[in-house]
């Protein structure tokens, strides 16, 4: 323990007075002891947020331990005040914060700050309220008549209340009478009506109606998976009861560690990997397991990638639990601050029993948890790119251990890390290999674009390389049959580069050193990293020659090509450029589902979690975009993407077809995806990872240095490299310092260094020691990322 900042007014510790050890929220790893004043005694527990005096200031802090005595108690100050009425961190979340701090090597205060939404941290318990007005007594007829003559507005309000069963809210009245706030004052004073304040929830789904849905009869495969999940839930609920009280105050990190060890003992793993092909009914398994969890009086948390958190997804949950739809809280980044605040408090106050959300929802303050579900567990967006750089799936597994609840990871294309954990028996593997509708997977046809180009089969010169002849014929066929088509390309804009014919230079963003993309609608070059925009130059910025040439295509260009070839088709484009307006995405998807559109062109916004029964054709316009990124997961990503996109086709009565256009038809990712052969692909890729010592056989740490000055950033990383070499833990593989794959972003030059080891904690301890001992120039930032998803 450490003493709190010395103060002359420190009270002596009275008999029976207790001490709180707190973590200061704004200072890295600063734990201090404070005396709990008698008036706050009853309100302070572990996880309470408080204000404490520190160096003539008041700062926010979190109580992490309660003590009977402190070795420094002669000089302790008192806690000044409470923030919020109940502890904002559950004991489980505090343990989790320490685990994250430890594993990702990030100060615990940073983790604690991340755990609370900003609105909750900065303005806790600021709810919207409304006045509830009630008719207190009936005015006698003569008074009422007088009122009609002298104060007709007042009379109108009384009549309105009367016709409304004697009550109304002020905001209801104001819809008819904008000045109602002023008009009710004399009525209140005269005692005709009474007023009380009620809380109004900002509910993002206020206007939505949900048709109730009934549980479906599970298929055999679903039944097997469901039973396994229920067994794990009950097993964990059993241990939770027996562990119960041993989870005492204090020694938080130690307990998290202990929870971790206890799983390696004999009992079966409580983390399950549900590997189910698209359409095998994973969501139905989730829904029925959650229903049971609620019946047990427990709570459930469902993580979904941000991009799949569509109204359609939420609707499925709200519809199933429609009688308890209030018991569902939704947490994601598209809510307003107020909505997020209110949804969070719905969980905090124990009213929400189910939380659905994106990455940061893993920190939802649920208690008494029965099940955590991570859908699409392979999704890279579960990794946070700024400190704390946590991976929500991995954090979910740890939270499951801490809370003694089951964890269910679901995917049609599990990450190799999870697949390996299942193979090793750390996770229980559940397979669902068949679609619930009994349909076979779609036919996947690989189109070699190199041949296509040689044959010269393009419709016109300007459409080169966008639509192969085979894909064009397939689209035409669907238009004739009144079936639908999805065209997928993970690049926005019209052309993806502009370069000079004379000198070969490409027009790049000044700040980010990547080619700028033409957006034709407003005729601007746009940087997709920093958003910088400029008018396309008419002459080469470098050699001043005219004759700049556009190349590469994005979704905007595809739309034009498709309109040119199929002028009669009804189509829409879905990307972040076209989907700016609120509800636009939902409306477009609704139209597509209602078959008011024939063709949907889009980026990854349409690759996930969508189910359109009349889509029988999917075209992947360029499968190579993901394959060509310099990342050891490039092939894994490509395979996942192809299988996911293919899953959009043929979900209805007709068998689907998928065309994959590529310049690398023989790469394993493309060949295995052709038969949706996950196991074949995974085993092949694992061999490769083993040979080159990449995850899941090692852990990666990516150390980077960035700053405005290129040479300084590079030199800093070089120095770091030399120091890391000394005493490098045995078994560590360290690469050379190199420019990052995004060598410049937002005006900062970036260099990186990749380290790999089987012993992640030993490696991180070494890195931390070296970085802490290094003097870094003021405007150079050094950071490191444990288990990075982008290298
Ligand atoms: P996944 O999440 O694995 O892609 P879904 O849960 O979305 O699959 O299910 C695909 C489709 O199958 C949905 O339309 C769903 O309503 C339907 N479905 C799921 N389970 C069953 C079942 N047991 N019987 C009939 N239809 C089912
Ligand atoms: Zn830029």
From TrEMBL:
One of its GO terms (cellular component) is primosome complex. It catalyses: Couples ATP hydrolysis with the unwinding of duplex DNA by translocating in the 3'-5' direction; ATP + H2O = ADP + phosphate + H(+). It comes from the Bacteria. Zn(2+) 2 binds at residues 509, 512, 527, 530. Zn(2+) 1 binds at residues 500, 503, 540, 543. Residues 263-432 form the Helicase ATP-binding domain. InterPro entries: DEAD/DEAH_box_helicase_dom, Helicase_ATP-bd, Helicase_C-like, P-loop_NTPase, PriA, PriA_3primeBD, PriA_3primeBD_sf, PriA_C. Initiates the restart of stalled replication forks, which reloads the replicative helicase on sites other than the origin of replication. Recognizes and binds to abandoned replication forks and remodels them to uncover a helicase loading site. Promotes assembly of the primosome at these replication forks. Belongs to the helicase family. PriA subfamily. This is Replication restart protein PriA. It comes from Prosthecobacter fusiformis.
